[in-house]
């Protein structure tokens, strides 16, 4: 993997508040190498290590995107849900921003059947057949459709299991992380001082509470994905012609 | 607290390889900060033994070889040297700035990349129902044809089928639990469990489960083990021993079935401890996983194989 320049600025990270951890009483001692000090009862994360991990993650993501792999971004915190959706749309990746249904990846067969139902419902809505049914039935179907849209809207273009999964908060998305570990899917995870850095494949120690810090890290990763994709499309176009 | 933890960390780095007697000697140096809270002193004796275990990071099977020169004690020496920025590098806009793309643009872009998967609409003229061929029909016209055995060369043998009951308010609910061992006779085996209301379904479920955890058995030229081994799972303990050619498999119940499906011809096995079939099957798998071929050991230790036989 060649190392590229990702515009990772330590001052930028300090401004966004990436270095703030959680309270000292809630820490996980396995995070000890990544914590630099304690201030006012809050652990401060060592940003040099964060920057190194972030650049490694960006390199990995760039490489994977330039080979045409599929990504999935998972972030269900209320604060972060919106930015996760926008980041994923910008990078043309799949995303989950409302609740992560248990077994979405390990029980992929069932998820596929629900996706089929979602697609059929959308087709019916487009054809206008929903309006021809009696009011109660059409109301029920419309409610089901809106449910499916919130939970599965981000993965409706996913044909198989993703190749790399990016998780925003390890404590919130513990089920998602566990599923990826069982299936052997490489994961990139944003780790705070109360999380376990050994679970994910690349763990980026950062603040997962502040929206600014999540946005900063997602920005870098999305930029890397876009760059990788553009080189992939160039390769595909060159080879097809 | 900070100073106490810093001194304790320096103590533990000294104490990693020393015995407890030297701990008390090193305690005499920084006693001054500890006088302020005398309640800490009795805890200090228990600290080093558990500090040295928590301070060493657990080995995980994730590949972290790029951080091999990583010393957690050298905090101030960590340096971040990014590669140089290319000339004319313009920071890209954040994903939130910039005009919002319309839904059609987004859908078209996604479709270019992934095809019209489950979206139900197509802007580039792809077939919307492209995913229909992937649905496995469970009911309806074409379903009977799918019930044939999955052809991947693995043979199944049922170890035990038991009828288990769950007592609910209305009475007893009966299920069947099947334990199946799956293997080709060339060194791959797997043990699986499955429960269902009918025997046949239970056997199928357990076969699916067995195919998910397959283990390879190290075998020598004469179709036997390289050395003795013991494995335990729960209360079941199994002892396996290699045998000379012509012996056959001399083992009881579950152990015999696992070894036969693995293709081992000559072996001795004994169930020590519990006689539970499932646990014994799993214990033989554990025992077999512990075995190493001579070539593997020689490679790991970096010495030629002749040294091992001395």
UniProtKB/TrEMBL annotation, chain A:
<dbReference type="GO" id="GO:0006412">
    <property type="term" value="P:translation"/>
</dbReference>
<keyword id="KW-0934">Plastid</keyword>
<keyword id="KW-0689">Ribosomal protein</keyword>
<dbReference type="Pfam" id="PF00318">
    <property type="entry name" value="Ribosomal_S2"/>
</dbReference>
<keyword id="KW-0150">Chloroplast</keyword>
<keyword id="KW-0687">Ribonucleoprotein</keyword>
<dbReference type="GO" id="GO:0003735">
    <property type="term" value="F:structural constituent of ribosome"/>
</dbReference>
<dbReference type="InterPro" id="IPR005706">
    <property type="entry name" value="Ribosomal_uS2_bac/mit/plastid"/>
</dbReference>
<comment type="similarity">
    <text>Belongs to the universal ribosomal protein uS2 family.</text>
</comment>
<dbReference type="GO" id="GO:0005763">
    <property type="term" value="C:mitochondrial small ribosomal subunit"/>
</dbReference>
<dbReference type="InterPro" id="IPR001865">
    <property type="entry name" value="Ribosomal_uS2"/>
</dbReference>
<protein>
    <recommendedName>
        <fullName>Small ribosomal subunit protein uS2c</fullName>
    </recommendedName>
</protein>
<dbReference type="InterPro" id="IPR023591">
    <property type="entry name" value="Ribosomal_uS2_flav_dom_sf"/>
</dbReference>
<dbReference type="GO" id="GO:0009507">
    <property type="term" value="C:chloroplast"/>
</dbReference>
<dbReference type="InterPro" id="IPR018130">
    <property type="entry name" value="Ribosomal_uS2_CS"/>
</dbReference>
């Amino acid at each position: 993997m060649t190392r590229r320049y990702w515009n990772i600025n330590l001052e930028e990270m300090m401004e966004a508040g990436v270095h703030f951890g959680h309270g000292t009483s809630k820490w996980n001692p396995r995070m000890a190498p990544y914590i630099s000090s304690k201030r006012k009862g809050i652990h401060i994360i060592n940003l040099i290590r964060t920057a190194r991990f972030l650049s490694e993650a960006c390199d990995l993501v760039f490489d994977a995107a330039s080979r045409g792999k599929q990504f999935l971004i998972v972030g269900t915190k209320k604060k972060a849900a919106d930015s996760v959706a926008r980041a994923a749309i910008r990078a043309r990746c799949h995303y989950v921003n409302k609740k992560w249904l248990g077994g979405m990846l390990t029980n992929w067969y069932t998820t596929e059947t629900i996706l089929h139902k979602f697609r059929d419902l959308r087709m019916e809505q487009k054809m206008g057949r929903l309006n021809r049914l009696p009011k109660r039935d059409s109301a029920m179907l419309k409610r089901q459709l809106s449910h499916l849209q919130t939970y599965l809207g981000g993965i409706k273009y996913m044909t198989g299991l993703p190749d790399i999964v990016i998780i925003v908060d390890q404590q919130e998305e513990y089920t998602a992380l566990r599923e990826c570990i069982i299936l052997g899917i490489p994961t990139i995870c944003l780790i705070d001082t109360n999380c376990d850095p050994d679970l994910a494949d690349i763990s980026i120690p950062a603040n997962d509470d502040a929206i600014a810090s999540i946005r900063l890290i997602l920005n870098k990763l999305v930029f890397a994905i876009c760059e990788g994709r553009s080189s992939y499309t160039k390769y595909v176009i060159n080879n097809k012609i | 607290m900070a100073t106490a933890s810093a001194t304790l960390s320096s103590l533990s780095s000294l104490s990693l390889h020393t015995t407890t007697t030297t701990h008390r000697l090193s305690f005499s140096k920084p006693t001054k900060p500890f006088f302020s809270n005398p309640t800490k002193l009795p805890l200090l004796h228990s600290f080093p033994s558990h500090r040295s275990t928590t301070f060493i990071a657990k080995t995980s099977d994730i590949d972290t070889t790029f951080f091999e020169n990583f010393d957690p004690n050298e905090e101030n020496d960590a340096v971040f040297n990014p590669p140089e920025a290319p000339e004319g590098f313009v920071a890209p806009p954040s994903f939130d700035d910039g005009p919002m793309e319309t839904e059609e643009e987004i859908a078209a872009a996604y479709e270019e990349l992934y095809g019209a998967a489950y979206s139900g609409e197509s802007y580039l003229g792809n077939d919307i129902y492209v995913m229909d061929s992937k649905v496995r029909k469970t009911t309806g016209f074409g379903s009977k044809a799918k019930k044939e055995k999955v052809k991947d060369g693995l043979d199944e043998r049922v170890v035990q089928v038991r009828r288990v009951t769950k007592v609910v308010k209305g009475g007893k609910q009966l299920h069947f639990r099947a334990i199946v061992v799956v293997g080709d006779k060339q060194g791959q085996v797997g043990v699986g469990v499955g429960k269902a209301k009918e025997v046949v379904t239970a056997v199928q479920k357990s076969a699916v489960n067995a195919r998910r955890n397959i283990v390879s058995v190290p075998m020598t030229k004469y179709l036997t083990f390289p050395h003795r081994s013991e494995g335990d799972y729960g209360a079941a303990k199994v002892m396996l021993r290699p045998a000379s050619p012509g012996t056959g498999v001399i083992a009881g119940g579950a152990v015999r079935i696992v070894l036969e499906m693995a293709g081992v011809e000559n072996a001795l096995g004994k169930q020590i401890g519990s006689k539970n079939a499932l646990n014994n099957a799993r214990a033989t798998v554990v025992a077999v996983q512990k075995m190493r071929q001579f070539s593997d050991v020689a490679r790991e230790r970096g010495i030629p194989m002749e040294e091992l036989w001395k």
